[in-house]
Design goal:
five-stranded antiparallel β-sheet; about 180 residues; 3 helices; two-stranded parallel sheet; alpha+beta
């Protein structure tokens, strides 16, 4: 089932999400719905808070970018209770967008490598270092679990330049090709 994506201004996007246990109700169905929603919206990642659930679940599907980055062919992963343990010191700027901020794309500076711990959909534990585009997407999506958005990394000047778009979202005037849940006008 395609779920509505919560847009900037929804309080759940600014909350710290909670870890879940294997008995979380309808988890497999939720994960399937997250992937279906992500696919429908042509995104690469989706965090549970983006569909209104304050839990630590993220799905990432990088198959969509495999024409440009062939090594990401088939990279489709579910992350339960993910946490960033550490990052390296090397930074890189790259343009980012977000399904919860339709129409906004900005350059964001992030570490190039990230050490993460998480559980997969079978609740098997993983402790890994990731780098490059995978590390960037993980950081972006895991930020959602900590109440952060990529615009939080922008300079005051860049934030001022997108203020009109953000205010339009707060007034319920965002537009996208996918189903959204906007702030009530």
């Amino acid at each position: 089932m395609i779920l509505p994506v919560y847009i900037y201004g929804q309080p759940v996007l600014r909350e710290v999400a909670e870890d879940i246990t294997p008995d979380y109700p309808h988890l497999k169905e939720l994960i399937a719905n997250l992937y279906e929603t992500l696919d429908h919206a042509d995104g690469v990642g989706l965090a549970a808070p983006q569909v209104g659930l304050n839990i630590r679940v993220v799905v990432i599907n990088l198959d969509i970018v495999s024409d440009d980055i062939p090594e990401l062919k088939g990279y489709i992963h579910t992350f339960i209770n993910p946490h960033v343990i550490e990052t390296n010191d090397e930074m890189e700027d790259m343009e980012e967008g977000c399904l919860s901020l339709p129409g906004i794309h900005e350059r964001v500076r992030r570490p190039t490598k990230v050490h993460v711990r998480y559980l997969d959909e079978n609740f098997q534990e993983h402790d890994e270092w990731k780098e490059g585009y995978v590390a960037r997407v993980m950081q972006h999506e895991f930020d959602h679990l900590n109440g952060k958005l990529f615009i939080d990394y922008l300079s005051p000047l860049r934030r001022q330049l997108i203020r009109g778009k953000l205010n339009a979202m707060l007034k319920g005037k965002a537009r996208s090709s996918y189903k959204m849940k906007q702030v009530k006008k």
